[in-house]
Design goal:
Layout (H helix, E strand, L loop, with lengths): L3 H17 L4 H8 L3 H8 L8 H10 L14 H6 L1 H16 L2 E11 L2 E11 L7
Antiparallel strand pairs: 1-2
Helix pairs in contact: 2-3, 2-4
Length: 131
């Protein structure tokens, strides 16, 4: 189910996209193969009581896509879903540190606007150079 606030925002966005195309609700309903009442309900923020396929059809008719997002305990869901990756990362860090390396997990970077995260950055203090 879509949260109430998200359903309202979704409705506003769908309406704005429809108006930008100079379409009536009837035009959108025809293109999405749904009823005019479905378009109206979605635009009024009632997407939470509609079938997901109807909402997706309306969005696709407007050349838009709906992304669903599930959140749980802050970032803990990502950790749960990536448990194998996290376990491997912890093992590699333990091995590196046991061999005298220093290691830092999950280092973010931004180079000329390209952003990402490096799983592990490691260096060996004995071989490090001063820059």
């Amino acid at each position: 189910m879509i949260a109430i606030m998200d359903a309202h925002r979704l409705g506003t966005a769908l309406r704005s996209l429809r108006i930008r195309r100079n379409w009536r609700q009837e035009d959108l309903a025809d293109r999405a193969d749904v009823s005019v009442d479905d378009v109206s309900r979605a635009e009024r923020g009632h997407a939470d009581s509609m079938a997901g396929r109807k909402i997706r059809a309306i969005a696709l008719a407007l050349d838009a896509h709906i992304d669903y997002s599930l959140r749980w305990h802050g970032g803990d869901l990502d950790r749960l879903l990536n448990a194998r990756h996290a376990a491997m990362q912890e093992l590699v860090i333990k091995i590196l540190e046991g061999a005298g390396w220093q290691a830092v997990p999950e280092v973010s970077f931004s180079i000329f606007g390209e952003r990402g995260v490096i799983d592990i950055v490691a260096w060996h203090a004995r071989h490090a150079r001063s820059w």
